Amino acid sequence: MEKITRMSNELKDWIQQTLKSGVNPESIVAAMVKKGFDQAFAYSTMLRILNNQSLKTVDSNQTPYMYESIDVAKKGNIITTTDREIKVLLKMDKPFITFLDNVLSTEECDQLIDLSTNRLQPSEIIDPITGEKKAVPGRTSKGAYYYLNETSLISTIERRIAEITSHPLEHGEGLQVLNYNIGEEYKAHFDYFPANQIDKDKGGQRIATFLIYLNNVEAGGETIFPKIGLSIVPKKGTAVYFHYGNSHSQVDRMSLHSSIPVLKGEKWVATKWIRQTEINPTRKPGVIVTE
Ligand code: PD2
Ligand code: ZN
Question: Could you identify the atom of ligand 1 that is nearest to the CA of residue 180?
Fold first, then answer.
């Protein structure tokens, strides 16, 4: 169904009144999306109405997120690893996002797709209430999961990610390869865990995501950051790296993101979620949908 991208004056008045009555902007946006509004449109309208003051970026029980300097941002426009030169294409501070080119070679992308094709299973999320894994309509892709250093290809990729991000390989969850067919998507979510599901003995909170694009998608399939109106178009061998957890254990709600439906072709990505400390490498990954 076509999403609504126009706003009547009545609706604008209603939003202003509702904001005045103390309702949180994010709840209003969520209500608009439920009513059929395009999410990016709903956020940009809300920002306009708020005179471009930033939207609330934290849980109600969290003090404002404190942005800290991120190692990648200090590495210049070309990041040199032991085996590759990575080119920085885009940098953003708040939320911290960087888009990188030449992260994987064409051959590495193809090999990872080949390795994963027979291993795909319906993707699951972790239920934020029960903590159990389950398939949900909001995440229609299929996924293949790998243990740390499972093959030499996985090992090479993991070492490279660790060198680029300066986060030790052991802080990373097992690599996850996702495949989306036409119409498949991953609705808006945060990658970090709700406070009640952080296991301090198993790496603690997730603080960053390294997402590698393994193919070009003919139409659709962008990774969207709806709160800032950013859309990343998949390009084979590139990666988006975003950071959302600081040394005070705060999480950045500006990191909300989604993968919009593939319209033509298919989409392959590899995701590495990074934790605060070393995790048990036998644990398989999962993601929380909270919005
Ligand atoms: O495939 C994507 O673009 C995407 C978007 C949002 C992947 C993830 N999140 C993820 O793996 O967390
Ligand atoms: Zn995600």
Answer: 1
What is the rounded CA–CA span in Å between residue 290 and residue 110?
A: 33
Cβ 233 vs Cβ 222: under 8 Å: yes
Domain span including residue 51: 1-62
179 Cβ inside 6 Å of ligand 1 = no
Q: How would residue 55 be classed by pLDDT, with cut points 50, 70 and 90?
A: very low
Number of domains in the chain: 2
pTM comes to 0.78
Q: Write the pLDDT tens digit of every residue in 200-246.
A: 999 999 999 999 999 999 999 999 999 999 999 999 999 999 999 99
Mean pLDDT of the chain: 86
Which amino acid residue places its CA nearest to atom 12 of ligand 1?
191
Long-range pairs for 88-94: beta carbons < 8 A, 24 or more residues apart: 89/238, 92/228, 92/230, 93/67, 94/67, 94/254
Is residue 150 domain-resident?
yes
CA–centroid distance, 223 to ligand 1, in Å, is: 7
Least confident window among 34-38, 103-107, 154-158, 275-279: 34-38
CA dist 246 and 179 (Å) reads 30
Q: What percent of the chain has pLDDT over 70?
A: 80
- Sign of the Cα torsion 106, 107, 109, 113 reads positive
Q: Counting ligands in written order, which one lies closest to the CA of residue 187?
A: 1
Within a domain: 105: yes
Atom of ligand 1 nearest to the CA of 223: 3
Over residues 97-124, the mean pLDDT reads 95
CB of 191 shorter than 6 A to ligand 1: yes
Residue 111: CB atoms within 10 Å: 17
Asked if residue 287 belongs to a domain, the reply is no
